[in-house]
Amino acid sequence: MYVIKSTPALMLAVAIALMPGMVLHGLQFGPAVWLQVGICLVAALLAELAAAFYRQVGLVKTLADCSWVPTGLLLGLSLAPLTPIYLDLLATIVAINLIKHGAGGMGQNRINPAMGGLMVVALAFPTLLYPAPSAHAPWLAQVDLAQAWQAILRIGPRLHFDAMASATPLANHYQGGFSVHWSVFGYLLGGLALAALRVIRLEIPLMLLASCALTCVALGESWADSLTELLYGGLMLAAFFIATDPVTSPVTFKGRLVYAALIGALIGTVRRFGLYPDGICIAVVLCNLLVVDIDRRMRPAVFGNPPAGR
User: Which one, out of 10, 129, 186, 240, has a CA that is 20 to 30 A from the CA of 17?
Assistant: First the structure.
């Protein structure tokens, strides 16, 4: 079996694996999704160029690892569509210039760049983010490219998202029940392809998804509602493409299981009790900060000595 070894090839493999989910997400919720991704991708390229300038390294060296490509794609898919363009830029600058290059470049960062940038925007400007698209009320699919540009640039008349996001489900008697984001199937397909190429380890997404569902059940949700949580694209995206980041996830097998279980439990808890409907970025960043300690405690004993840190 072919195993990807070079960094540019690995990054491009991740980007290609994201394509099925991104295409299905846009087909379900309209071209605004792809516009958001394109903006974040261009912003990521500009941020890398800025990093090459202030770090005084060659452009080819900075861009050649292609790490900015999956970062831009993940930010575009994680941010709510029609997010103001200045928040897209802020999230990208935090992700690439502060988290990645501020730590010394690729491979030196302790937290996932895309999730760090998203968390700053989500915590600092929650009222400026539009509501996430809902499969119950596909209001976003009604927005064409011209309207999307106006909303992102904050020009022209304001779209009445409250009516589209809240009144529509009431008018159609959709107040809960089963719904699915088509992107789930694309991210699942892409994630399995990466696992087959040995780019990611399957124990992380499997443990994360199981932990999130079990946490929701423990907190009072029914099994049906808990399993429905897995059918939202953001969770599947996080499980296969974000939590599996080799730089910010544990290197030991037991460590990866503990790490994924903690992320899943935090996501379920934040969704149940927190102010933020998703909580993925918060859970991932907090657990990224525990990775070194998790690995130290999960490292097997050598010659009868207890693991370091005990």
Answer: 129
